[in-house]
Amino acid sequence: DTEVTQTPKHLVMGMTNKKSLKCEQHMGHRAMYWYKQKAKKPPELMFVYSYEKLSINESVPSRFSPECPNSSLLNLHLHALQPEDSALYLCASSHGTVNSDTQYFGPGTRLTVL
Amino acid sequence: EDKVVQSPLSLVVHEGDTVTLNCSYEVTNFRSLLWYKQEKKAPTFLFMLTSSGIEKKSGRLSSILDKKELFSILNITATQTGDSAVYLCAGGYSGNTPLVFGKGTRLSVIA
């Protein structure tokens, strides 16, 4: 099973809302990632969790708050977002540590901020 | 300066053509090079290359790494309209460094 699942598939929220994106994998992977992807651009790394600990935060604004409740789950809590945060949010996982392992991506959540 | 550079950025070919996509990378702490295909949604994994000169093949797609000249190519033979996608190349580096993606090559295959 090489599947990473993400919910919801689509999300529309206002700038005052609080919402969460969820990601799950059951491959026993110990590194999990959040990426943001704007149209016609490559994915941009936001956060990396390695063995359930935040190991990389790529200077992401505090209105994005990641959480890794256990080794299979990764959440991204959203609060007071801006319209420019509208994008495809991708979750990925890899077997071991962050360096060069194949990352398997989930289908993404398409977020629209009004 | 970008660590991973792809070329061309976009390409239009006819069905049946063979295409070669290029990816050059920075050598410092390099461990592996990965290719992904992205259609409308998330990237899907194609190949991971770590050794120079060994071709990896999957159907009509193949890829090879040249660690002397610091590049990789992705070949697609007998292209089909379903091959239309953005092809992403990513460099894997040692240390606490995640994958570094290139900007991608947008391939359009027309009937």
Structural commentary:
The complex is a heterodimer of chains A (114) and B (111). Chain A is mainly beta. Chain A is 0% helix and 56% strand. Chain A contains no helices and eleven strands. Chain A has strands at 4-7, 10-13, 18-25, 31-37, 44-50, 53-57, 64-70, 73-79, 87-94, 104-105, 109-113. The radius of gyration of chain A is 13 Å and the shape is globular. The termini of chain A are far apart. Helices cover 0% and strands 58% of the residues of chain B. Chain B has strands spanning 4-7, 10-14, 19-25, 30-38, 43-49, 56-58, 61-66, 71-76, 85-93, 100-101, 105-110. The mean pLDDT of chain B is 93. In chain B, the strands form two sheets. In chain B, strands 2, 4, 5, 9, 10 and 11 form a six-stranded mixed sheet that branches. Chain B has a single domain (4-110), classed as Immunoglobulins (Immunoglobulin-like), CATH 2.60.40.10. With 111 residues, chain B is mainly beta. Chain B contains no helices and eleven strands. Chains A and B meet through strand 10 of A and strand 4, strand 5 and strand 9 of B.
Produce the secondary structure layout.
The complex is a heterodimer of chains A (114) and B (111).
Chain A: E1 4-7, E2 10-13, E3 18-25, E4 31-37, E5 44-50, E6 53-57, E7 64-70, E8 73-79, E9 87-94, E10 104-105, E11 109-113
Parallel strand pairs in A: 2-11
Antiparallel strand pairs in A: 1-3, 3-8, 4-5, 4-9, 5-6, 7-8, 9-10, 9-11
Chain B: E1 4-7, E2 10-14, E3 19-25, E4 30-38, E5 43-49, E6 56-58, E7 61-66, E8 71-76, E9 85-93, E10 100-101, E11 105-110
Parallel strand pairs in B: 2-11
Antiparallel strand pairs in B: 1-3, 3-8, 4-5, 4-9, 6-7, 7-8, 9-10, 9-11
